Amino acid sequence: MATIDFSSRFGVWWTSDQWSIGDVITRAREVERLGYASLFYGEAGGKETFTQAAALLDGTERLVVGTGIANIHARSAPASESGSRTLAALHPGRFVLGLGVSHAPLVERSYAGSYSRPLSTMRRYLETMDAVPAEIEPGAARPARLLAALGPKMIELSGTAADGAHPYLVTPEHTAHTRERLGPDKWVVSEQAVALTTDRETGLRRAHQHLHMYSQLPNYQNSWLRQGFDESDLVVGGSDKLAEGMVAMGDAEKVAAQVKQHLEAGADHVVIQVLGENPAADPLPALHELAPALGLS
Q1: What share of the chain has pLDDT > 90, as a percent?
Q2: For this UniProt entry, which residues form the secretion signal (predicted)?
């Protein structure tokens, strides 16, 4: 299993596309100071993921930086492999390459590509990465590769052709299922969205806003059906049942307890996505409040 130097079992998931990179680095330093071990972020047509990783790694001291995920349709497999090796050479143990097939509407609209046979596409992509010569960054260890794996076949591939999985929008039961399929020797880094509020209506509003886009994507719809939800939960924005299943809501102690359920289910590390009143809200106030409840210093 490729090395990841997590200093604690909790990290942060934050897509900061609407923030300047200088402000992102400033907040990443505070995330590190609070004791969170990692900062993961998405790639959906905003900041370029490898450039952002380089800036965050250079701007912090020990924070693990992870792509959650790098869209394989955005760059060639050799570019992903050589770029990730360079980041790993500069910052050993601190870069995690999360890869995903993304979603048909995004790929066809933003990347002018065709979306078909995602499992085969990912398998070929990984094989092409593996074929990049060792002379590219000689002597540097390859960074850990995690796949955005929701369905059983992609989870299996994350164990046979990668170093583990990065489940997103899943219950602790799904984390347990992923761990069972991967066994003890692969990484499982689960994402958990949180709404730090004791007002249920506020929590539900934030959760529905968060789920609005995802609830219209077939990959997530199918994942939620496999997780035990039904068609009635797949309305735009998700049902209240789905919202409460995907988003931990409450005060700091209650939210921390729900986050820890992923660890109890077998995750090695959990990245926390703070939901505010809008997608560009600053996550730091909630992260400050959560840190003591998670046992961070």
Answers
A1: 90
A2: none
Q: Give Cα 56 to chain centroid, integer Å.
A: 16
Q: Which domains are present in the chain? A: 10-293 (3.20.20.30)
The tokens for 53 are 């990783």
Query: Taking Cα atoms as reference points, which of 15, 26, 91 lies closest to residue 49?
Result: 15
CA distances 150 to 112, 177, 218, 238, 261, Å, are 24, 10, 12, 18, 18
Q: Is the peptide bond before 69 cis (omega within 30 degrees of 0)?
A: yes
Residues listed for the chain: 297
Task: Quickly list DSSP for 6-55.
Answer: -SSSEEEE---TTS-HHHHHHHHHHHHHTT--EEEE--SSSS-HHHHHHH
119 by DSSP, 3-state: which?
helix
The pLDDT of residue 46? 85
pLDDT at 179: 98
